[in-house]
């Protein structure tokens, strides 16, 4: 398909209550995963997929996110004077990654409302939505395939992952049909956070979506759903029911880290640090010794 370039939207207005008191003054998206804030991994993922225009949806007390992606001339000059080129490059990378914009959500009224706040910036471009606390390992790229499927089908694309039925109530869940492409399904229905007995499958929506600007028209009349919030899942359900539009899912089988959950956040740090050349050789033997002593 021929269309305007993709943009990226990263909702980051949540309160992060699961990490209190750490997130009382620090946005959960700024919590470090090894030595970078979680949200930087997400912006880097969008850039690696070829997206240069990134909009971050902020909430109250989230100014640290904007500061992180701004240049810091004083710090950069001090590092330059010290000859610390390695740290200088890391600091400059955050501000040079992409054309990063910010808009405030105001009151957190759900993911659908956050996406709707991006309408003025996105305009008539297709766009990717990347949740700010959901990390996809760079060795298992997902977004490029989703963008390609959007180009092929001209329909909304969601990322799906097989989930243990005991945890299915934490996700939006898809009812699906097979397609002629391996690993791609047609979504025929969506249920937000069902009980495991009511779930139509074990395929859960994870924090990646590729959408056309037509989703804004749907979100404008989407009523508050579960939790009293405007759910993106409800808007996608309407698109899935429209034979002229439709929704498709890319089934992801790679490595994903949910940094919005305390245990998964700790696991993400350990896994990513273990795989690094600068940390892994010392960390892996220590982990074995530590585990053996439990």
UniProtKB/TrEMBL annotation:
<dbReference type="InterPro" id="IPR029044">
    <property type="entry name" value="Nucleotide-diphossugar_trans"/>
</dbReference>
<comment type="similarity">
    <text>Belongs to the UDPGP type 2 family.</text>
</comment>
<dbReference type="GO" id="GO:0006011">
    <property type="term" value="P:UDP-alpha-D-glucose metabolic process"/>
</dbReference>
<dbReference type="InterPro" id="IPR005835">
    <property type="entry name" value="NTP_transferase_dom"/>
</dbReference>
<protein>
    <recommendedName>
        <fullName>UTP--glucose-1-phosphate uridylyltransferase</fullName>
        <ecNumber>2.7.7.9</ecNumber>
    </recommendedName>
</protein>
<dbReference type="Pfam" id="PF00483">
    <property type="entry name" value="NTP_transferase"/>
</dbReference>
<feature type="domain" description="Nucleotidyl transferase">
    <location>
        <begin position="7"/>
        <end position="273"/>
    </location>
</feature>
<dbReference type="GO" id="GO:0003983">
    <property type="term" value="F:UTP:glucose-1-phosphate uridylyltransferase activity"/>
</dbReference>
<dbReference type="InterPro" id="IPR005771">
    <property type="entry name" value="GalU_uridylyltTrfase_bac/arc"/>
</dbReference>
<keyword id="KW-0548">Nucleotidyltransferase</keyword>
<keyword id="KW-0808">Transferase</keyword>
């Amino acid at each position: 398909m021929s269309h305007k370039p993709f943009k990226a939207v990263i909702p980051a207005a949540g309160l992060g209550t699961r990490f209190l008191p750490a997130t009382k003054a620090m946005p959960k998206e700024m919590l470090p995963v090894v030595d970078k804030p979680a949200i930087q991994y997400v912006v880097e993922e969008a850039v690696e997929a070829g997206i240069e225009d990134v909009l971050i949806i902020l909430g109250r007390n989230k100014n640290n996110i904007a500061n992180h992606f701004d240049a810091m001339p004083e710090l950069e000059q001090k590092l330059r004077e010290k000859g610390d080129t390695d740290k200088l490059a890391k600091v400059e990378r955050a501000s040079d990654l992409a054309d990063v914009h910010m808009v405030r959500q105001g009151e957190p009224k759900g993911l659908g409302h956050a996406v709707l706040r991006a309408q003025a910036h996105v305009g008539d471009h297709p766009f990717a939505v990347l949740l700010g606390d959901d990390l996809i390992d760079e060795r298992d790229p997902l977004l490029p395939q989703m963008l390609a499927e959007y180009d092929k089908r001209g329909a909304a694309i969601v990322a799906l992952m097989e989930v243990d039925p005991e945890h299915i109530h934490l996700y939006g869940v898809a009812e699906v049909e097979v397609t002629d492409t391996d690993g791609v399904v047609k979504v025929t229905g969506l249920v937000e956070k069902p009980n495991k007995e009511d779930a139509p499958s074990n395929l859960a929506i994870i924090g990646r979506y590729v959408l056309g600007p037509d989703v804004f028209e749907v979100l404008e009349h989407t009523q508050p759903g579960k939790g009293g919030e405007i759910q993106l899942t409800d808007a996608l359900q309407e698109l899935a029911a429209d034979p002229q539009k439709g929704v498709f899912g890319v089934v992801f089988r790679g490595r994903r880290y949910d940094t919005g959950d305390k245990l998964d956040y700790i696991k993400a740090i350990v896994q990513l640090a273990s795989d690094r050349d600068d940390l892994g050789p010392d960390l892996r033997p220590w982990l074995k010794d530590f585990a053996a002593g439990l």
